[in-house]
Write a structure and sequence with these properties.
heterodimer; A: mainly alpha; MetI-like fold; 2 domains; two-stranded antiparallel ribbon; flat; B: mainly alpha; 11 helices; 75% helix; transmembrane helix (chain B); transport (chain B); Phosphate transport system permease protein PstA (chain B); cell membrane (chain B)
Chain lengths: 318, 292
């Protein structure tokens, strides 16, 4: 039975009225909502502007005190010395960063690429299903944990292996561990690139009598080269910006000499060292972390743009 | 006349197959190396950290004596920072993604926003720390507070959430949008009632994974001036704080062996938190993900 209760009934007129008001309400929403979302999108642009602006202004203040020529040509970095004797030569920090990055790449590129080739060319779907999540776990481990691992396991291990021993803080141990951290990234990005190569090309080569190894090296790898190289470049960028591993295991002795078994300091480790100390706001040392941060930012930006350029420019379309 | 010299092919085939076998072995070895490292890492941390792990370790404050040290302040600090980061980064990230996928016209501005986001994802985390130090700590005068830390972390993980949300929104098929429009729904109604609910599992998975990255992040908060030695729990978002990774860094950088042991115990707690977060993310992805 339909309820005849009067209070529950609405006249057609009131329903139309209600509909109209709700429609005008939703018309307002239709106009306001996109603007709110646009503001969200603009905040991401402001983040970039904020980064560039803060780095630039504070770096500018720094260069008012220390000449830009000295900054880029001096090979000594001793900011904590008394005023007149302080040296701000970023080359020492850059060398530290590049040493660690080079070691990391020596570890990560062959192992990461080999794992990628195995996963995309040899492994069965079942094996892949087991190994890929494990690689993801490895990629998800916080860098502080890797730093702990470098200091308390890899360094003592290297100390036993290397004939002359190795100091507690050195370039080799964090370099190797940064490399281990980057392996999953290179492996998964390279594997994606190789997976994008169509199967018909593999089958064509196999039908001509090529072995799987020959297919991988002479067909798949050349076809996926842009993606593979882009993954290397992104790996380099990650290694340059890596902070905690090199801070914990690398030490704090900036040097422009290349010595893998001695303490070094990277750009990132210097920034951490200063923020951990009791450096006052407005001192030259305070501004120096922005100049170092700016250099770091430019390094990684160039690497990221290079990676994008490589994967866009040299992509082979099938 | 035989076109193919079978003898020489046979001869070379042996070395080619051998090369294939050796290469395959090396490739497997490389893959196993990663697994081996993961195994050693977990074994080392468990063997060093388990003896010190107890309920007291979780509920005690940091201490100069390793046997009385605990992670209570750091654990609550992490929770406080995440309480700021999660809503801020979720709203900003999803808002940006909806704008880019649903509203933005295909023009230079949209392309610029997109490129900007992918470049932000490549900026080292420590640079975000410098940004937070200048803008939030000094310019806005927030000090080294939970709020400053949480906002910095939000900006850090924003690109990850945007990209994940965009992918989730893109998987919602055109047809159900058109069906909604066909029923007379407006654009906002369609987004709110159709697209957003359908994309939500993917968005949540991406957000939780991004947050788990923020939980393990140390460098930006160190630069912001988060304290390393804290014997109090944050009272509100303007309190000073420490987080788990910073506490672990503090213990790891001390020379005494005992502090390395409790650092390992702390790492176990940190990894358990990350494991739980990742499991929730995977659960959401598997349980609620709809294939259209």
């Amino acid at each position: 039975m339909v309820s005849r209760d009067k209070s529950n009934q609405k006249s057609i007129r009131s329903m139309i009225q209600e509909n109209k008001s709700s429609r005008s309400q939703s018309a307002v929403m239709e106009k306001v909502v996109p603007k709110l979302f646009l503001i969200c999108a603009i905040i991401s642009i402001f983040t970039t502007i904020g980064i560039v602006f803060t780095l630039l202004t504070e770096t500018f203040t720094f260069f008012n005190r220390i000449s830009i020529v000295e900054f880029f040509t001096n090979t000594r970095w001793f900011p904590f010395a008394a005023d007149k004797h302080a040296d701000f030569g970023i080359i020492a920090l850059i060398m530290g960063t590049l040493t660690v990055t080079a070691i990391a790449m020596v570890v990560a590129i062959p192992i990461g690429l080999a794992a990628a080739i195995y996963l995309s060319e040899y492994a069965s779907a079942k094996t892949r299903k087991v190994i890929k999540p494990i690689l993801e776990v490895l990629a998800g481990i916080p860098t502080i944990v890797y730093g702990f691992f470098a200091l308390t396991f890899v360094t003592p291990l290297l100390d036993k292996i290397i004939p002359g021993g190795i100091s507690i803080f050195n370039a080799l141990s964090p370099g190797i561990v940064v490399g281990i951290m980057i392996i999953p990234m290179i492996a998964s990005l390279s594997e994606d690139a190789m997976n994008a190569v169509p199967n018909s090309m593999r089958e064509g080569a196999l039908a001509l009598g090529a072995t799987r190894f020959e297919v991988a090296m002479k067909v798949v790898l050349p076809a996926a080269l842009s993606g593979v190289i882009a993954s290397f470049v992104l790996g380099i960028s990650r290694a340059i910006g890596e902070t905690m591993i090199v801070t914990i295991a690398g030490g704090s002795r900036p040097t422009a000499d290349i010595n893998l078994t001695e303490s070094i300091q990277t750009m990132t480790a210097y920034i951490v060292q200063v923020s951990q100390g009791d450096t006052g706001y407005g001192t030259t040392i305070y501004y120096s972390i922005y100049a170092v941060g700016m250099t770091l930012f430019v390094f990684t930006l160039i690497m990221n743009l290079l990676a994008q350029f490589i994967s866009r420019k040299f992509r082979e379309e099938y | 006349m035989a076109l193919i010299n079978k003898e020489s092919v046979k001869k070379r085939m042996g070395t080619r197959l051998a090369a294939n076998g050796v290469a395959k072995f090396l490739f497997i070895l490389a893959t196993l190396f990663s697994l081996l490292v993961l195994g050693v890492l977990i074994y080392r941390i468990l063997s060093e950290g388990l003896p010190y792990l107890s309920l007291d370790f979780i509920t005690n404050f940091a201490s100069r004596m390793p046997e009385r040290a605990g992670i209570w302040a750091a654990l609550l600090g992490t929770i406080w920072v995440m309480a700021v980061t999660a809503p801020v980064s979720f709203i900003l990230g999803v808002g940006t993604a909806i704008y880019l996928e649903e509203y933005a016209k295909k023009n230079a501005f949209t392309k610029f926003v997109q490129i900007n986001i992918s470049n932000l994802a490549g900026v080292p985390s420590i640079v975000f720390g410098l940004l937070g130090l200048t803008i939030f700590v000094r310019l806005l005068g927030l000090g080294s507070s939970v709020l400053a830390g949480g906002l910095t972390m939000s900006l850090l993980i924003l690109p990850v959430i945007v990209v994940a949300s965009q992918e989730a929104i893109r998987t919602v098929p055109r047809e159900i949008r058109e069906a909604s429009f066909g029923m007379g729904a407006t654009k906002w109604q369609t987004i709110r009632r159709i697209v957003f609910p359908a994309a939500l599992p993917g968005i949540l998975t991406g957000t939780i994974l991004a947050l788990s990255r923020a939980v393990g992040e140390t460098a930006p908060l160190l630069v912001l001036g988060a304290l390393a030695y804290v014997a109090f729990v944050p009272e509100n978002i303007f309190s000073q704080f420490t987080v788990l990774p910073i506490q672990l860094y503090n213990w790891t950088s001390r020379p005494q062996e005992e502090f390395h042991m409790i650092a390992a115990s702390g790492i176990i707690i940190l990894l358990i938190i990350l494991l739980i977060m990742n499991s929730i993310a995977v659960l959401i992805r598997n349980k609620f993900h709809k294939r259209f």
